[in-house]
Amino acid sequence: MADDDGVSLTDRVAFLDYLDNNVVDVLSVPGLRCDICTITYAVPPAAAPPSDIVDSAFHHDLQQEGGHEVPVHLPCTHIFGRDCIITWTTESPTCPMCRVVLYSTTRPGDTFGDIARRRNRESLRELEQQRQRAALHTALRAHQAEFAARQEELMREFETRQIRERQQFATQFVHLEEATRQDVARATDHMERAIRQTYSMSGELKVTRQEFERVRIQNRDRFEELERRLTRERLTGNIMRSLSAMVFALAILTTALMLHRG
Ligand SMILES: [Zn+2]
Ligand SMILES: [Zn+2]
């Protein structure tokens, strides 16, 4: 917070350090916009305050990727965009809102040499920060390019694999279709053979029935013939027996007559 004379920080380096350690959660800023440039802050993926300058610069660059600068709060508690307040304070080290002096540009007893050395140190620090940001930006761009290339490579790989799999599937399908066709052909063949066998069996059955009928009729004829013959023989036997009885009777009669005469 500000001292009685309005100066809270010893110099610009301390002020820049202060800003790095006082990044504000975007969602807690009324209106979500910077009061100097009136542009909306970017909502960070993780609103944790950065732990050092490099993190802060990187964080800042990420913000620039998404939308606008990060909000920081000043010792007087007013909140502005980090880039805007840094630019603003190169003209005057005061808060744009309440005009409180944020840091000292001179100290009691400073010589011109002290002031020159301090300004030199400040500009060196800012140059170093700019250099770090540029390096991080380059690294980020390289990383993004690498990522895009890798993504494209993966997409190509995926498409190639998909095409290959589709071709394999098509080939397998053709094989399967061919196999199925052969199976169906074999089954049809079996069925036709079975039908032919059934036909030939029914033909054979017909022939067998005819044969049976023929044999039956033959047997019946033979039986009738035998019966007829038996009847005939029986009849002949009877006649013969009658004849022999008559002959016998005649013989007895003849003998009796001869005995009677003799
Ligand atoms: Zn701004
Ligand atoms: Zn203020």
UniProtKB/TrEMBL annotation:
Residues 34-99 form the RING-type domain. Pfam families: zf-RING_2. Keywords: Membrane, Metal-binding, Transmembrane, Transmembrane helix, Zinc, Zinc-finger. SUPFAM superfamilies: RING/U-box. One of its GO terms (molecular function) is zinc ion binding. The chain crosses the membrane at residues 239-259. This is RING-type domain-containing protein. It comes from Sporormia fimetaria CBS 119925.
